[in-house]
Amino acid sequence: ETGVTQTPRHLVMGMTNKKSLKCEQHLGHNAMYWYKQSAKKPLELMFVYNFKEQTENNSVPSRFSPECPNSSHLFLHLHTLQPEDSALYLCASSSQGPEGQYFGPGTRLTVT
Amino acid sequence: AQKVTQAQTEISVVEKEDVTLDCVYETRDTTYYLFWYKQPPSGELVFLIRRNSFDEQNEISGRYSWNFQKSTSSFNFTITASQVVDSAVYFCALSDRDSNSGYALNFGKGTSLLVTP
To answer: What residues of chain A have any CB closer than 8 angstroms to a CB in chain B?
Structure first.
């Protein structure tokens, strides 16, 4: 298994749908992150989990709901999204030290 | 305030040219970490290098080299003899203790590098 996996890789959903993005890391890390990358915008940190506890929520709308059941898995539950939420959603993990974050391949989300 | 500035939005070079990607950072911490990531068209961010604030030695890895200068708060990245496969978006990032969440990263806006044959 590669370090950080994300499913699905591509997702198209309507504004009234409910879907979930999944991230799994096989690196033994304790911290996991969700980032949003929109076209022509910098990477935006959305959520941070350390040892399964959410430690940061960067003013993300409530239509995005994260879940971290254990240190290896991270979910992003989506409901009633807007077209402007279309973006690449990247998951990352890291140890507690400064070694840097390792990223998954991302989920390309399109909201219609 | 933006912590990491990558002033070059897009760069286009011809294969075999050398190219330098600029990164300027801002922090009040004495202990911090700098990173470069590569994002090819596939989308995944690939870790290239980490440098801590106490180590100003320049580093070379194959065709890649990094120039860290605390005096100018810069951490520039040079690709020597560029190749088409180097085409990607490159991100510089900073991690310091101003972050509320351990070592979460502050990313620059990225520099899109296009290497043409």
So the answer is: 31, 33, 41-43, 45, 48, 50, 55-56, 88, 90, 92, 94, 96-106, 108
